[in-house]
Amino acid sequence: MTARYCYFLGLGSNLQPTSNLQTALHKLQAQFAQIILWPIIETEPVSIESQRIFLNTLVVVRSNWTPEQLKSWCNELEESLGRNRKDPLSSIKDRPLDIDILAQQSQLNLSVLECFTEPYVRQVIASAERATDQSPTTHPVSLWGHQLGQRAATVYPNHAGGHIMVVEDSVDRLFQCFEAPLDREQSLC
């Protein structure tokens, strides 16, 4: 049996950001089934010359893929939304989508959040810790029939009903929701 990992992904966009993040989040959920989604926030550009505000979020997915396989899939997703990864200046230009693999874990552990130093990631984490629906930095988007992005949420398929389930709560409780199916899967191996 292949190892199963939890990956923390940082997502950002400053070209058609609402639409591009919606597409990216739909594709992440379709590919990996269950995801944890942090609030979506507006941030100033860092390390690029741009007047365009970014939308950023943090997502956790579970996969049997290696980091290289996941990065390849993420790069393909970025390119499908118009990012030119062959441009040597792409890292300092506006972008329709940027996905960074921030961490890989064999067991989900919240303490990794303390290790992230990227300014946008710190802001996303702080926004989730405030956990209010009216935080001035959050930017809700319509996903799966819900306005998401203001609070942390777990998104997963309800296989019995064929629907997408969305649970919004504190990050700690969402990790418990996320880990429960993982524990069941591991006990079946």
Automatic annotation (TrEMBL):
<protein>
    <recommendedName>
        <fullName>2-amino-4-hydroxy-6-hydroxymethyldihydropteridine pyrophosphokinase</fullName>
        <ecNumber>2.7.6.3</ecNumber>
    </recommendedName>
</protein>
<dbReference type="InterPro" id="IPR000550">
    <property type="entry name" value="Hppk"/>
</dbReference>
<comment type="function">
    <text>Catalyzes the transfer of pyrophosphate from adenosine triphosphate (ATP) to 6-hydroxymethyl-7,8-dihydropterin, an enzymatic step in folate biosynthesis pathway.</text>
</comment>
<keyword id="KW-0808">Transferase</keyword>
<comment type="similarity">
    <text>Belongs to the HPPK family.</text>
</comment>
<keyword id="KW-0418">Kinase</keyword>
<keyword id="KW-0547">Nucleotide-binding</keyword>
<dbReference type="Pfam" id="PF01288">
    <property type="entry name" value="HPPK"/>
</dbReference>
<keyword id="KW-0289">Folate biosynthesis</keyword>
<feature type="domain" description="7,8-dihydro-6-hydroxymethylpterin-pyrophosphokinase">
    <location>
        <begin position="8"/>
        <end position="110"/>
    </location>
</feature>
<comment type="pathway">
    <text>Cofactor biosynthesis; tetrahydrofolate biosynthesis; 2-amino-4-hydroxy-6-hydroxymethyl-7,8-dihydropteridine diphosphate from 7,8-dihydroneopterin triphosphate: step 4/4.</text>
</comment>
<keyword id="KW-0067">ATP-binding</keyword>
<dbReference type="InterPro" id="IPR035907">
    <property type="entry name" value="Hppk_sf"/>
</dbReference>
